[in-house]
Write a structure and sequence with these properties.
Number of strands of chain A: 7
CATH architecture of the largest domain in chain A: 2-Layer Sandwich
Strand order of the largest sheet of chain B: 2-1-3-6-7
CATH architecture of chain B: 3-Layer(aba) Sandwich
Largest sheet of chain A: 5 strands, mixed
Number of helices of chain B: 5
Order of helices and strands of chain A: HHHHHHHEHEEHEEHEE
CATH class of the largest domain in chain A: Alpha Beta
Number of strands of chain B: 9
CATH class of chain B: Alpha Beta
Oligomer: heterodimer
Structural class of chain A: alpha+beta
Number of domains of chain A: 2
CATH topology of the largest domain in chain A: Heat Shock Protein 90
CATH superfamily of chain B: Response regulator
Helix content of chain A: 55-70%
Radius of gyration of chain A: 36 Å
């Protein structure tokens, strides 16, 4: 028993010995057959397992110029394997025994590898989806900003009481603004024309609320109307101007909105910093940048800042 | 009684002024819209003022910033669309907190509250009042 086992341990290296010893002990042939099979399978598995890890390592470094090293090593192993079979004169029977575990082993290893990759990819996909939903949720929250609504209503209350000529247009703008923001929740992008109409409503409200403290100039090429922007991105960019700057008739906030030939819409304002900490709700420009990234657009949002001016460039899609 | 309004939206400020002046005891002496102006104004005229109406989100920041630059000794009614600043309002001389859009009654209630507080203080002419209890003597000051 022990002897035949030892024989089979050396089987892989020296098939000749294996064959010889096996056929010389006819009485133990049935037992040694089984032990031989298990032994061969065990050793082949062990070697294959090692080979597998070598291959995995090579696979991981298989980038660029390592490609040829990978191919060379793989072919080298194959050649050594074939040489081992031929030069060590392993019988057909034994080589089949060695090949059987290979056939069983490789797909199992491969399946495990694929499984692991699959799990990782699924996790990554889930993370992206979660990120996307969070972006959408935050965008939604920022759209239905209750403070904006209440402040606007307070201004409206005063306008109505004094029968201000603009009060009717104020109501129309307020309802237009909310209709747009609530209606387009599901769309990821909007045509520039729609974006501009939301922005006009928004700016009308802000101008009335800060009478004489806001100056706005528009310069949009009408040829660009059919291009798209991420939903309400223009409004977010302009809202950002109001959020970070002080506004008064003595020092009006100047906002320029213009298009350029490289297919960007720029929102530019003069910097008049507020005093103390500013409410950064976090769903402003950062989120907009993330939305562009989720759409796979590089350089979608470009921020340029000088001591006097702050500008946000939005890429037309 | 002299009132100062600090509010960055002119329409809202004029509405507030109108409502306050419905009460014959009050007159709005000035409308300001920024922290900087308020700090300057209070530096000069605080002793002439009786009550302040503060919006919280002003054109150049939060009105609490005023308290970091000048010692304010006049009571304040905060008037804002934000409901998350109540604690800070109480810590900064707040005697009432009105949410926008406001009703006339709410402003009047704030004014009545101010009047009651003041008349009670004046009746006691700022002296601390001592209450005798069974166990101990405790001091009760109104502010």
């Amino acid at each position: 028993m022990l002897k035949s086992k030892n024989c089979y341990v050396t089987a892989l290296g020296a098939g000749r010995v294996t064959a010889g010893s096996r056929f010389s002990h006819q009485s133990e042939s049935a037992v040694s057959e089984i032990i031989g099979l298990i032994g061969a399978w065990f050793i082949a598995s062990l070697i294959l397992y090692l080979l597998w890890f070598v291959l995995l390592y090579l696979w991981d470094i298989r980038t660029g110029r390592n490609k040829w090293r990978f191919a060379g090593t793989a072919i080298g192993f194959l050649v050594i394997w074939i040489c081992a079979i031929f030069f060590l004169n392993i019988k057909m029977e034994n080589s089949i025994r060695m090949i059987v575990p290979v056939i069983v082993f490789l797909p199992i290893q491969y399946a495990m590898r694929i499984q692991r990759n699959n799990a990782r990819l699924r996790l990554e996909k889930e993370q992206i989806l979660t990120e996307n939903y969070r972006a959408q949720l935050k965008a939604l929250q920022s759209k239905i900003d209750p403070h904006f609504l209440f402040n606007s209503l307070n201004t409206l209350q005063s306008m109505v009481r004094h029968q201000h000529p603009n009060s009717e247009r104020f109501i129309i703008s307020l309802s237009d603004f909310y209709r747009h923001t609530l209606m387009h929740n599901e769309d990821t992008t909007l045509p520039l024309s729609d974006e501009l109409s939301v922005l006009r409503s928004y700016l009308f409200l802000m101008e009335r609320r800060n009478e004489g403290a806001v100056q706005i100039s528009w310069q949009i090429d009408p040829a660009l109307q059919s291009f798209h922007l991420p939903t309400l991105s223009l409004q977010v960019a302009v809202e950002n101007c109001f959020k970070h700057n002080s506004i008064s008739p003595k020092m009006p906030l100047q906002i320029e909105i213009y298009s350029s030939d490289d297919h960007y819409i720029t929102v530019n304002n003069n910097i008049q910093s507020k005093i103390g900490e500013i409410d950064t709700s976090g769903y402003g420009l950062d989120l907009l940048k993330k939305r562009y990234e989720l759409m796979g657009i590089q350089k979608g949002l470009v921020i340029e800042k000088t001591p006097q001016q702050f500008s946000v460039k939005l890429k037309l899609i | 009684m002299n009132v100062l309004i600090v509010e960055d939206e002119p329409h809202t400020a004029s509405l507030l002024q109108e409502i306050i002046e419905q009460d014959a005891d009050f007159i709005v002496v000035e409308n300001l819209e920024s922290i900087v102006d308020t700090v300057h104004y209070l530096g000069k005229y605080q002793k002439n003022l009786d009550l302040l109406f503060f919006d919280i989100q002003l054109a150049d920041g939060r009105s609490f910033e005023v308290f970091n630059h000048i010692d304010v000794v006049v009571p304040v009614v905060f008037c804002t669309a934000y409901d998350e600043y109540t604690l800070q309002a109480i810590k900064n001389n707040g005697i009432d907190y009105v949410l926008k859009p406001f009703k006339e009654e709410e402003i009047h209630i704030a004014l009545q509250k101010y009047k009651r507080l003041i008349s009670n203080l004046q009746a006691k002419s700022w002296k601390p009042v001592y209450f005798q209890t069974d166990q101990s003597i405790s001091t009760n000051s109104v502010f």
